[in-house]
Fold this sequence. Notes:
By secondary structure, the protein is of the alpha+beta class. Helix content is about 20%, strand content about 35%. The protein has 13 helices and 30 strands. The strands form four sheets. Strands 1, 21, 22, 23, 24, 25, 26, 27, 28, 29 and 30 form an eleven-stranded mixed β-sheet that branches. A hairpin with a 4-residue loop joins strand 13 and strand 14. Helix 12 (about 545-550) runs antiparallel to helix 13. Residues about 1-30 have low confidence and may be disordered.
Amino acid sequence: xxxxxTATFLAAAVLAGTIATSAAAQGLDGKGVLxxxxxxxxxxxxxxxxxxxKADFHAHSNESDGAPQPADTVEEHYKKGxxxxxxxxxNVTNTTWNRKDDPTGKGRTYLTDERLETIxxxxxxxxxxxVAIMNSDEQSVSDHLNTFFxxxxxxxxxxxxxxxxxxxxxxxxxxxxxxxRYTGGSNTSGTAGExxxxxxxxxxxYVDLFTRYSACVGxxxxxxxxxxxxxxxxxxxxxLKETMxxxxxxxxxxxxxxxSNSATGHSYNMMLLPSNxxxxxxxxxxxxxxxxxxxxxxxxxxxxxxxxxxNDYQPPVITNIMVDQAEDTITIEGDLYNxxxxxxxxxxxxxxxxxxxxxxxxxxxxxxxxxxxxxEGISFTxxxxxxxxxxxxxxxxxxxxxxxxxxxxxxxCTVSMKGLTGLNSFDVAVSxxxxxxxxxxxKSLLDNTVIAADKSAEGTARMIIGTSAxxxxxxxxxxxxxxxxEKAAPxxxxxxxxxxxxxxxxxxxxxxxxxxxxxxxxxxEIISYRAASDINGDGLVTxxxxxxxxxxxxxxxxxxxxxxxxxxxxxxxxxxxxxxx
Length: 581
């Protein structure tokens, strides 16, 4: 994992001389010091053929604390162009929109069978039906959690964690609702909300939940008109800073948390699906194939909350996302936006349709996300996972394929690197079988080496190397000379790059990290002439072995080709007779 180091630390190191400038650290292909791998949640989205489906995963009726009848909540979403709806009344498991039972004993009104069929098929809306997310519930005994595809209702004494655990046990998924209500992030006074959303203990609480339970796919980053969620984007980024280095994505959701018809249609999710089915919706919720849109996002400058004013607002639409792994770029295309901001570690680091990660080395660590800002709202992408290694690749090569015990052979292996960009510190370790070899020498092959610290131990040849001038391009870095032990057992043995770490400094900072390993091991065959001369395997070398070898003269019989030359010849006989007593 990439680690950024301060210039102060580097200055205290042993290295001396010229430090690479930003320009000097640029590779021939235009890359910077780092080579990024981008893990996009949109990698499997076909932007030409997939549809975009508007979803609300948080809506109420008068089965709990909402105003409308359940049927009216469904109808209002349908009228306002929603394609997906989860009815999530507090502590009420939604089954079907035409349910005939009475879950709360309140005698509420649901859809008729005929109306459900119409809405499901969209026969009065150009064939665009609305999908119901079944077995949804806002588990509200403790901190609120929306559960989906999960037939259970929390009981007295339940906690946020126990409800998440139950969801996972039952094979469902869930997301955490408006965490700012519980963290203090909803406080709009000065920096109180930001501070509350940045408390280490608070952040760790959510990090632990997301780490323990894969069923918890994300959290609301916008709720209603961004009241409780005022600081939840800050919390989201703080969580991502901790989870993304471990490869744990946390998706951001935007929901109306509908309690009245008039409060519907302002915060929603655009699901990117090959077709609108509950199965596909679930997959997108799990894999992050959606973006979150909102008309109100107060910290980002969207503060108008008058419903008559914002009802017809249209937040930005994303039409394409392209990742170029070779160039380390992400490009977003869309409509209804004025600018695209790129966010890493909670800070806006760039603007524009395309971000070249190499332009922001030192500012991007484990993720980057984008937010499209228009006149009438904002849309948030999900985080892109980012892993980085220092540009370049390494390989190991041995100078021989065959080593003979009786000759006391040495094997020299060289670690070389290609495509380096401004590196000046190297920590290279090569592993070998200490029953076969003993180390004779380890040394730096780099020009301008000013420090070469031998850190070797039995079985590992390791050296830390520092150069007074930055290394770019291709270079031999380390040489290790190994001598065969007298009692080395015949057979194949591997010499391998055990670890390789590098560091570089440019105008953006100092970067410590590995480089890619192109060829990580080489194999040497160890042979004993004495053992090979015992052709009949009786433990002795006698005339009988010579007789067998002579019978194979000029053949390619491997059992008699003692010196592994490829042909049984006089050289093999000379070796064999040397071991006859």
